[in-house]
Write a sequence for this structure.
C-alpha cells in the first residue's frame, strides 16, 4: 500500500472507532438522563414505573397548598381535573407558582406521593405550558374514551410557554 | 403614519435585497461588470432603508403609540425610557427587525472593507448575503410584522416582560445577533467560492477576520446572557444546558472549529473542503437556533410566543439554505489535498481540535433535538437532563485541555522535534500533577474536580507561557496581532477551566426559612436576615429584603434581595443581590413569605467560589478573537498576498 492510502486507511479506522465510541457514549448518557412527562391520570393508571424519576404536569389544585411552619417544606396536589396526585417539596417555590395555575414537578414517588426536587411554574400568565396542556388533553381524551366525557375548561392552550424554574434549568431572555 | 412609513421602508429594503441577490450574482456568472457594480450601492441602500425602518419602530415605541399591536403587547406607559428603546427587541417581531438590521450592517461592512477584492468575488459574497437578507426580511414582513396596526387601539400597554426590564436586555441580544448573523459572512464567502469554482487560500484569507469578529461577538453575547441569567433569574447558575442556550452554543463550537480550520486552509492549503463545510455548518446552526427559538417547538425561558406558520417558514428557509449550500458543496467541493503533513504536526493537532469540537456540537445537537424527535413520533414528552450535556462535554473537552499547549508550539507539516516539545512541557506537566495532589489534599471542601480544574488551568496557562517564552526569547520573533489574539484566547480557556471546575465542585447553596434577626452559617460566612420592607419602584412594588453578611465578625456586605410585583402584568420577579469578588461571590435570593403576616421568608443563600473566572475567561477569548482580526496580513492587497511566503513557522492557529 502506498503511504497516502495507508494514511487514509488509518484515518478511516480512527474515525470509525471514534464515531462508534462517541455514539455509544451519547446513547448511554441520553438513556440515563431522560425524564418523561406524565399526568396524574398516567400515574393513576400505573403508566409510571416505580422508582422512576419523572415530571408530573398539571394544575395546582385549589386550596391544596400547605406549608410546614418554620421550614420550607410545602405540600400540594397536582390535578389534571380527572385524577389528583400529592406532591412534597422542600425548597423555594418559583415566582409564578400559584394555586389553579399549571406546574411541572420533577422527582420520584415515595410513600404514595411525589417527592419533588424541582418545581417549574409557568412564567407568563398569557400561556399555558404546552406540555401541561397536552397532558391534560391526553387525560381528557382517555377519560372521554372511557365514557366520562366531562369537559373541564382547562386544556386548550397552544403556543409556547415559558417557565420560571426555581432551580437551574432555563436561562435568560 | 410613522408605522406605515416604517413598514414601507422595510418593504422597499426587501425589494433592494432581492435586487442585491439577483443582479450581482447573474452579473458575476456572466461577466457583466455593470451588474456586478450594483452590489455595493444596493447593499448600502438596503442598510439605510432598514435603519430608517428600525428608527421609526423605536420612535413609535418612544411615542407609545398603542395603535401598533407590537407596542401594545410589549410596552406600558410606566416603562422607563431606556426599556422603551431596548424593548424594541424585547419580543419576536422587533428582535427580528434588529436581526435584519445587524445583517444589513454586516453586509455593508463587507461592501465597504472589500475594496481590495476582485469584483466578481465581492458581487457573489454580497449576493449570497443578500439572499439571506431576503429570507429574513420577508419572514419579518409577511409573518411577523412589527408595524401591524391594532384597531381599535389598546387602552393600556401590556408591558414588557419584567424579566427583560434589565440592562441585560440592552446588550445581550444585539451582541448575540451580531455573532449569529456574522457567520453569514463566512457562509457568503464559502458559497461564493463554491460558485466561483476556485477554492483556494484566497477566499479563506478574506473571510478569516470576519469569522473571528463574528465569533468574538457571539462569545460576548453568550457571556452576557450567562451573567444576566446569573443575577437576574435568582437561581445563581451561569449555564443550564437549556435548549436555547444550546442553540447559541452549537454555532459557537462550530465557529470555534471554523476559526482553527480556516487557519490551516489559509496557511497550508489543507482542509479546504472541511473549512467550507464548517462555514456552512456554523451559519446553518445559527439558523437552526433561530428556528428553535422562534417556532415554538421548544419550551424554554427564551422561547418567544409563536405560531406554527412562523416555524414552517424558518424551516423552509433553513432547508433552502442548508440543502442548497450542501448540494453546491457536493458538486463543487475541492478535491485537492493541499500540502502534505505527517502525524506529528500542527495540522494533526488542529484536526484533533476540529474533531473534538464537531463531536461536541453533534452531541449537543442530539441532546437538544432528541426530545423533539421523540415528541414528534408520539413516544411521549421527555426532557434531557443537564448531566447528559455536562458529563459528555467534560469528557470531550478533557483532551482539548491536554493537547492545547502543543498546538501553537508545534510546526506545520512535520514537527521533527516532538521530543523537544514534550521535554519543554514536561516540567509543567509534573508541576500540574503536584498541584493536583496538593489541591486534592488541602483545598477546603475540594474534590478531584477542583484539583483537575486548577491543574488543568495551570497546564493551559503554562502552555501559553512556554509559547511566549520560546517565540520571544528563543526564536527572537515579535508577536503579530494573530499571535497575541491566540495567546489571549488560549489563556482565556485556562482561566475558564479553573473557574468552571472550582465553581461546580465547591459551590454551596442553602435554602432557609428566615425570621428577622436569625443568622445562618454557610461556608464560614454568616448571613443575618434583617427583614423585608415594602418599597415602590417606577412600575413595580418591591418586597425589599436586607441581609447582612459577615465573616469572622467582620462585615462583608449588606445585600438587598428583592421580590418585585409588576403593576401592569401582575408578574413577580426575583431580583437577587450579590457581593462580587475575584475568588468568591456571596449571593442571596428572596423567596416567598411563609406566614400570613409576612415576617418569615424563604431565603436562598449561596457562596460561589471563582465564578467570575468563567466570565473573565470568556472575555479573554472574545478579546483574542477581535485582536486576531486586526492582523496586518489580512489587509494586504491581493497581489501581495498572492506571493505570501509560507510564513508558517511559529505562526498561530
Amino acid at each position: 500500500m502506498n503511504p497516502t492510502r495507508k494514511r487514509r486507511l488509518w484515518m478511516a479506522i480512527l474515525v470509525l472507532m471514534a464515531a462508534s465510541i462517541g455514539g455509544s457514549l451519547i446513547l448511554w448518557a441520553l438513556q440515563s438522563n431522560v425524564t418523561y412527562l406524565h399526568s396524574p391520570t398516567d400515574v393513576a393508571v400505573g403508566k409510571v414505573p416505580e422508582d422512576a424519576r419523572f415530571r408530573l404536569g398539571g394544575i395546582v389544585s385549589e386550596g391544596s397548598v400547605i406549608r410546614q411552619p418554620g421550614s420550607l417544606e410545602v405540600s400540594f396536589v397536582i390535578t389534571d381535573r380527572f385524577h389528583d396526585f400529592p406532591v412534597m417539596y422542600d425548597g423555594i417555590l418559583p415566582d409564578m407558582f400559584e394555586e389553579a395555575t399549571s406546574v411541572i414537578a420533577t422527582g420520584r414517588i415515595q410513600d404514595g406521593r411525589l417527592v419533588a426536587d424541582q418545581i417549574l411554574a409557568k412564567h407568563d400568565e398569557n400561556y399555558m405550558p404546552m406540555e401541561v396542556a397536552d397532558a391534560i388533553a391526553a387525560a381528557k381524551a382517555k377519560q372521554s374514551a372511557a365514557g366520562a366525557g366531562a369537559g373541564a375548561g382547562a386544556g386548550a392552550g397552544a403556543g409556547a410557554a415559558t417557565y420560571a424554574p426555581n432551580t437551574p434549568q432555563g436561562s435568560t431572555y | 403614519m410613522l408605522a406605515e412609513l416604517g413598514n414601507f421602508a422595510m418593504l422597499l429594503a426587501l425589494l433592494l435585497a432581492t435586487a442585491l441577490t439577483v443582479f450581482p450574482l447573474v452579473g458575476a456568472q456572466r461577466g457583466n461588470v455593470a451588474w456586478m457594480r450594483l452590489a455595493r450601492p444596493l447593499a448600502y441602500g438596503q442598510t439605510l432603508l432598514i435603519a430608517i425602518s428600525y428608527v421609526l419602530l423605536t420612535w413609535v415605541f418612544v411615542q407609545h403609540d398603542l395603535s401598533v399591536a407590537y407596542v401594545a403587547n410589549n410596552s406600558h406607559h410606566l416603562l422607563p425610557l431606556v426599556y422603551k428603546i431596548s424593548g424594541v427587541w424585547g419580543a419576536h417581531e422587533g428582535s427580528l427587525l434588529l436581526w435584519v438590521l445587524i445583517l444589513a450592517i454586516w453586509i455593508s461592512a463587507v461592501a465597504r472593507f472589500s475594496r481590495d477584492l476582485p469584483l466578481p468575488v465581492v458581487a457573489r459574497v454580497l449576493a449570497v448575503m443578500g439572499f439571506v437578507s431576503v429570507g429574513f426580511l420577508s419572514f419579518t414582513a409577511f409573518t411577523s410584522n412589527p408595524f401591524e396596526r391594532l384597531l381599535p387601539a389598546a387602552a393600556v400597554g401590556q408591558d414588557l416582560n419584567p424579566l427583560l426590564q434589565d440592562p441585560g436586555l440592552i446588550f445581550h441580544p444585539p451582541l448575540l445577533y451580531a455573532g449569529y448573523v456574522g457567520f453569514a459572512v463566512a457562509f457568503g464567502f464559502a458559497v461564493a467560492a463554491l460558485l466561483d469554482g476556485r477554492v483556494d487560500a484566497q477566499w479563506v484569507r478574506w473571510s478569516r477576520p470576519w469569522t473571528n469578529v463574528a465569533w468574538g461577538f457571539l462569545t460576548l453575547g453568550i457571556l452576557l446572557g450567562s451573567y444576566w441569567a446569573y443575577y437576574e433569574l435568582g437561581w445563581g447558575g451561569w449555564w443550564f444546558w437549556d435548549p436555547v442556550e444550546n442553540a447559541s452554543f452549537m454555532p459557537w463550537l462550530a465557529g470555534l472549529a471554523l476559526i482553527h480550520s480556516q487557519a490551516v486552509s489559509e496557511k497550508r492549503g489543507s482542509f479546504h473542503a472541511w473549512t467550507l463545510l464548517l462555514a456552512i455548518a456554523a451559519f446553518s446552526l445559527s439558523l437552526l437556533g433561530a428556528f428553535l427559538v422562534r417556532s415554538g417547538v421548544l419550551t424554554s425561558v427564551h422561547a418567544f410566543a409563536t405560531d406554527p406558520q412562523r416555524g414552517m417558514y424558518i424551516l423552509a428557509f433553513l432547508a433552502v439554505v442548508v440543502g442548497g449550500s450542501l448540494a453546491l458543496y457536493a458538486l463543487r467541493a475541492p478535491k485537492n489535498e493541499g500540502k502534505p503533513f505527517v502525524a506529528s504536526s500542527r495540522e494533526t493537532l488542529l484536526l484533533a481540535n476540529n474533531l473534538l469540537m464537531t463531536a461536541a456540537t453533534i452531541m449537543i445537537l442530539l441532546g437538544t433535538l432528541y426530545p423533539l424527535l421523540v415528541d414528534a413520533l408520539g413516544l411521549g414528552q421527555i426532557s434531557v437532563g443537564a448531566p447528559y450535556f455536562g458529563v459528555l462535554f467534560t469528557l470531550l473537552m478533557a483532551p482539548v485541555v491536554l493537547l492545547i499547549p502543543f498546538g501553537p508550539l508545534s510546526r506545520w507539516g512535520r514537527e521533527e522535534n516532538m521530543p523537544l516539545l514534550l521535554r519543554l512541557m514536561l516540567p509543567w506537566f509534573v508541576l500540574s500533577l503536584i498541584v493536583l495532589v496538593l489541591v486534592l489534599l488541602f483545598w477546603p471542601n475540594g474534590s478531584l474536580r477542583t484539583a483537575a480544574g486548577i491543574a488543568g488551568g495551570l497546564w493551559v496557562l503554562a502552555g501559553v507561557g512556554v509559547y511566549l517564552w520560546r517565540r520571544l526569547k528563543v526564536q527572537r520573533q515579535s508577536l503579530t496581532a494573530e499571535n497575541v489574539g491566540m495567546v489571549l484566547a488560549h489563556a482565556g480557556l485556562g482561566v475558564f477551566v479553573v473557574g468552571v471546575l472550582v465553581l461546580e465542585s465547591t459551590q454551596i447553596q442553602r435554602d432557609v426559612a428566615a425570621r428577622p434577626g436569625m443568622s445562618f452559617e454557610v461556608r464560614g460566612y454568616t448571613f443575618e436576615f434583617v427583614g423585608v420592607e415594602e418599597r415602590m419602584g417606577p412600575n413595580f412594588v418591591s418586597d425589599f429584603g436586607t441581609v447582612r453578611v459577615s465573616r469572622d465578625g467582620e462585615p462583608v456586605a449588606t445585600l438587598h434581595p428583592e421580590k418585585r410585583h409588576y403593576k401592569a402584568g401582575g408578574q413577580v420577579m426575583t431580583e437577587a443581590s450579590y457581593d462580587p469578588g475575584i475568588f468568591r461571590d456571596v449571593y442571596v435570593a428572596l423567596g416567598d413569605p411563609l406566614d400570613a403576616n409576612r415576617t418569615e421568608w424563604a431565603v436562598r443563600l449561596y457562596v460561589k467560589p471563582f465564578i467570575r473566572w468563567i466570565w473573565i475567561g470568556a472575555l479573554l477569548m472574545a478579546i483574542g478573537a477581535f485582536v486576531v482580526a486586526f492582523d496586518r496580513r489580512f489587509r494586504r492587497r491581493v497581489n501581495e498576498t498572492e506571493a505570501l511566503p509560507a510564513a508558517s513557522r511559529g505562526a498561530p492557529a
Q: What stands out?
A: Chain A touches chain B through 49 residues (CB under 8 Å). The beta strands of chain A are 34-38, 54-60, 66-67, 73-79, 84-90, 102-110, 113-122, 163-165. The mean pLDDT of chain A is 76.
